[in-house]
């Protein structure tokens, strides 16, 4: 806290008094919190799952004591966002805010729903999502200032995942419409989740098996480099839905004329065109980053390895690939996050995945069914990005040691 001379002090003997510094980001977030708390509905109540609902402010969505306690905590977090400078205090405040509003929105569902009414639906409204966004921004800002290493970020992710799992297992959200949609589709949810993961991770693995040798070939043979990158760049320009449609005809013909293809499940619609499309989209980041990673290996390091008597194969696996690994992993990170999102669209051609619930919800005007597919997809992409970022940092440290 800085100080300035006091105007009431005698000449020649200035006294110092503190000046108040407001955090700029925290001030913006505090305004967002005020908007969410007093002007935006905390939950939406609907008579059934498809009709439009009415919003309830936080003061109306919880019992008086619960509403007062929640408001006090939320305002305390806003005050910390504006005044607190220490990252640990800001992180603790954001964690406390998230730890209060997430159970609160679940408890509000039981409070606003009439006793014995099994048709009513209660969903988190814009006020809840704004509060969650505000607290997440404070936490992200604090974590950035703390400059956690890769292990610290993984621990933070584990704590967040554990807290979310505890919330869901505790039953605090059971009365929310989102969890009612899950309860009605629990078996199909996990089946589609497995399909989603298989499409995303399977296509990524196939792209690595093909893309790494292609990248190596482009690095070793300059004449091939532009041809490979330009060809894969053309694939990236094709919209995903259009690519799915393009693959339907040749795969349908293949299934009709090649019994083995039909036996393997290759058809014009379904998982096969979705998998192939994701595979094709995945190739460019893997190939380009492989070329870039191998290209940045210092020439004197390669010469030193050659002087030690290492063969070309030994230099590749013992020197070049380990040094290029962080850049290659960065490409794989792009692919995995991209595929987890694009796999949602596979449901349009019968490929399954979490997108099934998204498009069912759109067709039925059921926003909670949309969220049942969208929220896990976002969570998976977020977790995958953090985990792979940590792995990249660890490999960079290993390459420099």
What keyword list fits this structure?
single chain, 401 residues, mainly alpha, MetI-like fold, 2 domains, 3-stranded antiparallel sheet, 4% strand, flat
Please outline the helices and strands:
Elements: E1 3-5, E2 16-18, H1 24-38, E3 43-46, E4 54-56, H2 58-61, H3 64-83, H4 87-112, E5 121-124, H5 126-146, H6 150-170, H7 177-184, H8 186-220, H9 222-237, H10 240-257, H11 259-263, H12 271-295, H13 299-307, H14 312-342, H15 355-364, H16 367-400
Antiparallel strand pairs: 1-2, 3-4, 3-5
Helix pairs in contact: 1-3, 1-5, 3-4, 4-5, 6-16, 7-16, 8-9, 8-12, 8-14, 9-12, 10-12, 12-14, 13-14, 14-16, 15-16
Organism: Microvirga lupini
Membrane topology: Multi-pass membrane protein
Pfam family, one: BPD_transp_1
Describe this structure as you would to a colleague.
The protein is mostly helical and 401 residues long. It has two domains: 3-177, no CATH class; 186-400, MetI-like (MetI-like fold), CATH 1.10.3720.10. 74% of the residues lie in helices and 4% in strands. It contains 16 helices and five strands. Strands 4-3-5 form a three-stranded antiparallel beta sheet. Strand 3 (43-46) and strand 4 form a beta hairpin. The mean pLDDT is 87. Residues 193-388 form the ABC transmembrane type-1 domain. One of its GO terms (cellular component) is plasma membrane. It is found in: Cell membrane. It comes from Microvirga lupini.
